[in-house]
């Protein structure tokens, strides 16, 4: 049966289009470095790659939050550490004052100025901020949470952000808890004690140092009426306890950040495996496809002019 010229031409054009399409696809793969150029190339791998991109985007958000949390934690822990250090030094002076009193008026003024400096330092540190956000004001972080006399004007509710699925850490803190605020007065207990001692020094009757008391309800406990040194210790213990809690959060954020970085590397490798071109394989395939295309052209050229008349 004679094969018509039209049939030969149709067969040639069909395979010509296929070979040219293959060559174009492989060339684009090599030039772009991606083997998934469109969803139809591999629908399953395309879906997997899109899912990995979505997870990577989510992970990037967690990592940004972690950086913000760690910055906040470092400043907050540093502020509380400075308060605890100054508080420890101030306690030594309070104890000395209770034991020996003052030598004269000038000696009393020196001690008074020292206690005022300690008080001001503590309140300033309690108003620590990052980028205009007061860390110990809770959700009311736009202005200083503590007044000069240690009165708390912040909020009890805290701000948190997610740093991993199901894990949220603070970006602001409840200053009432962290700074040992006395519920009875609304002031930082340690600052209230310092103001009381300063007032006694101003009065000139230092015997009150041994008799004066404060009604203290702080850190979840109603301590009742306690002596000044004991009240100071209650306030400082509350701060040390909550400083430790911030330290625990810092360890959590550090561990999760390390975990997230490892996951990010794994996601990147998986995505690369799905999307990136295998250059050696693509070049080999291109060479095979070009050889097949050249063979197609040669076969067509040999057969297009065939005729029985050529054999007579």
Automatic annotation (TrEMBL):
Originating species: Chlorobaculum parvum
GO cellular component: bacterial-type flagellum
Pfam family, one: Flagellin_N
InterPro entries, alphabetized: Flagellin, Flagellin_N
Any one GO molecular-function label of the UniProt entry: structural molecule activity
Keywords, ordered alphabetically: Cell projection, Cilium, Flagellum
Tree of life domain: Bacteria
Protein name: Flagellar hook protein
Stretches assigned to the Flagellin N-terminal domain: 18-139
């Amino acid at each position: 049966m004679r094969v018509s010229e039209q049939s030969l031409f149709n067969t040639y054009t069909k395979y010509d289009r296929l070979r040219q399409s293959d060559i174009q696809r492989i060339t684009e793969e090599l030039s772009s470095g991606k083997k998934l150029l469109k969803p139809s190339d591999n629908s399953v791998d395309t879906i997997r790659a899109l899912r990995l991109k979505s997870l990577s985007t989510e992970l990037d958000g967690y990592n940004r939050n972690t950086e913000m949390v760690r910055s906040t934690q470092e400043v907050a822990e540093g502020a509380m550490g400075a308060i605890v250090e100054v508080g420890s030094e101030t306690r030594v002076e309070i104890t000395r004052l209770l034991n020996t009193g003052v030598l004269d008026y000038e000696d009393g003024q020196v001690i008074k100025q020292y206690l005022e400096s300690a008080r001001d330092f503590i309140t300033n540190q309690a108003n620590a901020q990052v980028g205009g956000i007061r860390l110990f004001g809770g959700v009311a972080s736009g202005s200083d949470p503590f007044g000069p006399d240690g009165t708390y004007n912040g909020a009890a509710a805290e701000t948190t952000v997610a740093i991993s699925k199901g894990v949220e850490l603070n970006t602001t803190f409840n200053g009432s808890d962290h700074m040992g605020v006395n519920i009875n007065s609304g002031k930082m207990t340690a600052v209230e004690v310092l103001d009381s001692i300063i007032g006694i020094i101003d009065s000139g009757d230092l015997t009150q140092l041994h008799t004066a008391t404060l009604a203290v309800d702080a850190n979840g406990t109603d301590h009742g009426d306690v002596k000044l040194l004991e009240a100071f210790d209650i306030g400082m213990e509350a701060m040390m306890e909550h400083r430790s809690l911030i330290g625990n959060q810092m360890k959590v954020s550090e561990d999760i950040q390390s975990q997230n970085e490892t996951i990010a590397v794994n996601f990147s490798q998986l995505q690369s495996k799905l999307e990136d071109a295998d250059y050696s394989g693509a070049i080999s395939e291109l060479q095979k496809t070009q050889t097949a295309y050249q063979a197609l052209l040669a076969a067509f050229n040999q057969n297009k002019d065939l005729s029985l008349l050529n054999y007579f």
